[in-house]
Amino acid sequence: MTSNLLDIGKVAAKLGLTENDLERYGNNMAKVSLEVLKRVQDRPRGKLILVTAMNPTKEGEGKTTTTIGLGQALNIMGRKVAIAIREPSLGPCFGIKGGATGGGKSTVEPSDRINLIFTGDFPAVSAAHNLLSAMINNHIYHGNKMRIDPRKVTFPRTIDMNDRSLRDIIVGSDGSESGVLMKDKFVITPASEIMAILGLSSSYSDLKQRLSRILIGYNFDGKPVYAGDIKAHGAMAALLRDALKPNLVQTAEGVPAFVHIGPFGNIAHGTSSIIADRMALGLAEYLVTEAGFGSELGGEKFLDMVSRIGKLPVDAVVLVATIRSIKLNAGVSNSKKEDVAAVEAGVQNVLKHVEILRNFGIDPVVAINRFPTDTDKEIAKLEEMLKKSNVVWSLSEVFARGGEGGLDLAGKVMEKLSRQAGDIKQTYEESDPVRDKIIAIAKNVYGAAEVIFEKKAENDLKNIEKIGMGKAYVCMAKNQYSLTDDPNVLGWPKDFKIHVKSISVSSGAGFVVPMLGDIMTMPGLPTEPAANNVDLTDDGIITGLF
User: Fold this and answer.
1) CB 340 within 8 Å of CB 445
2) Which of 389, 478, 474, 470 is nearest to 440 (CA)?
3) Helix 193-200 and helix 121-141: axis angle, to 10°?
4) CATH 3.40.50.300, domain 8-120+243-417, yes or no
5) Residue 3 confidence (pLDDT)
């Protein structure tokens, strides 16, 4: 953690906020009152810069680091800037990936507190989610007025931890006093529909309406039952009152940073909250915000869904790539060894992501996030290949040098902002049926030749029509490592098929979730989890987080 942090009041003042706008969590963190959103809604909006990426390695490609570093670079250039990123989940923090607060000299601070519990948003989401789970079982136990079929309860339980033993469980196993015997399961908190709802809500009234629309299961006649039917939404909203307020912290260089909510990018929509983005656009000249994983996942969801729901503009896009991931996409397992030929072959994955964004009507700037193992020959070959496709690119060194290492990238983004204009060319029309939306994303974004709906998915489509969700937004659940539904198929694959196994309903969030391949909503810990290295000193200092 950076030792010389500014008082959060001074950070807020950079955006024109006062102490009356803040609810402090110590000296370096605060929640921002929703009254600010009302105050800025009629102001001229700032420019929104979206940061996305190529298909990543398991360690990630530094998208958050690039987002933070770009914000710091724009600040050095004298621009009034804010960034907006997601909150970290404890599962990855203690699992394989580690924390999600950037790295090197481009971090959000205080990183230890942000990575661990923070202002309590994740516990609030877990509590609201599990309150609904408890009220469902309680309703069935006490007479079951809504005639909910225990075999057709669709709403799971949640915990913000990787625990594979909770993927499939039995509850009420000790008899009638322990409730109704039924199958159940847990999902990790970032995969909770409550997290998605929190991120897409624009006000307390919108939040309550969305919570009331959560599909919890079906009755014995096959008709849907919602959270509002068992009067759960009011208490859930009460638990989420403070969680709806954006969190304000700072980067390592004192740039204001909104860090708010955290839906997974491969299961949910993978972006910060609409409220945080809207607030930042009303307070700053420039907002740098990120979308989860590659442009075909978080990028597509932001451009096709989040920007529509939140009425958010997208003025420029940065596509993060690394030479190590480029080599991985060429089939090379040792990305630390120089391999110019692998760079030439693997760059096709980057070019596919450039094509995806160009099809949306946005020509991105490719940010090559530099690692110490990158060689001059590899960088030269990459430059040659990108120039052949007329791709604007920049070598980003924000990890090692902070904002100074992102000045070239910031300059090229500013050039795009001065020239680029026009509406986003979305993949589908909002009025299109769900089936057509799925096919459009698979073919026009991923590049699939064919989309196969398995029997379960076909039945789900019929049910989606029956419950009035036939034209809902689509939030594809897909692995992040490949453009296909098979994580082992790398590069820029052609003539592949996408298999839709099933389609779940997130009616409160307003979207459906097609499951492509095997997507884990409750991860497990690895053989040597990151938690093994986390400790607390006698002085109360947290160590071992990365």
Assistant:
1) no
2) 474
3) 120
4) yes
5) 61
Residues in the chain: 546
Cα separation of 217 and 349, whole Å?
Answer: 41
Region of 394 on the Ramachandran plot (φ > 0 left; ψ -120 to 50 alpha; else beta): beta
| 106 DSSP β-pair partners | 103
pLDDT digits (tens, 9 = 90+) for 453-465: 999 999 999 999 9
In angstroms, the CA 34 to CA 219 distance is 38
256: nearest Cα among 23, 545, 28: 28
Structure tokens at 373: 């193992």
Strand locations in 359-401, DSSP E? Answer: 365-369, 392-396
**Per-residue pLDDT reduced to its tens digit, 206-220:** 999 999 999 999 999
Q: Return d(Cα 503, Cα 273) in angstroms, integer.
A: 24
Token pair of 412, please?
């090229």
Provide the CATH number for the domain formed by 121-239 in this structure: 3.30.1510.10
pLDDT of residue 93: 85
Question: 376-388 vs 340-359: helix axis angle to the nearest 10?
Answer: 40
Q: Candidates 3.90.1570.10, 3.20.20.140, 1.20.58.100, 3.10.410.10; correct CATH number of 434-516?
A: 3.10.410.10
Whole-angstrom distance, CA of residue 60 vs CA of residue 280: 26
Burial class (CB in 10 A: 0-12, 13-18, 19+), 145: exposed
Round to whole Å and give the CA distance between 55 and 495. 18
pTM over 0.90: yes
Distance between CA atoms of residues 274 and 261, nearest Å:
10
Q: Which CA distances in Å does 389 have to 107, 366, 393?
A: 32, 12, 11
Interhelix angle 204-212/193-200, nearest 10 degrees: 150
How far apart (Å, rounded) are the C-alpha atoms in residues 306 and 140? 36
Place of tokens 């959560």: 214
* Domains 8-120+243-417 and 121-239 belong to one CATH topology: no
Going by C-alpha positions, the residue among 11, 490, 507, 3 that lies closest to residue 256 is 11
Measure the CA–CA gap between 188 and 93, rounded to whole angstroms.
Answer: 13
- CB 64: neighbour CB atoms within 10 A? 25
Sketch the domain layout of the chain as residue ranges. Answer: 8-120+243-417, 121-239, 434-516
Place of tokens 């096959």: 222
Reading the block at residue 403, the tokens are: 């904002």
Q: Is the pLDDT of residue 347 over 60?
A: yes
Contact 475, 301 (CB under 8 A): yes
Whole-angstrom distance, CA of residue 32 vs CA of residue 39: 12
Sign of the C-alpha dihedral, residues 493, 499, 504, 505?
Answer: positive
Q: What angle do CA 119, 399, 380 make, to 5 degrees?
A: 145
**Whole-angstrom distance, CA of residue 332 vs CA of residue 500:** 29
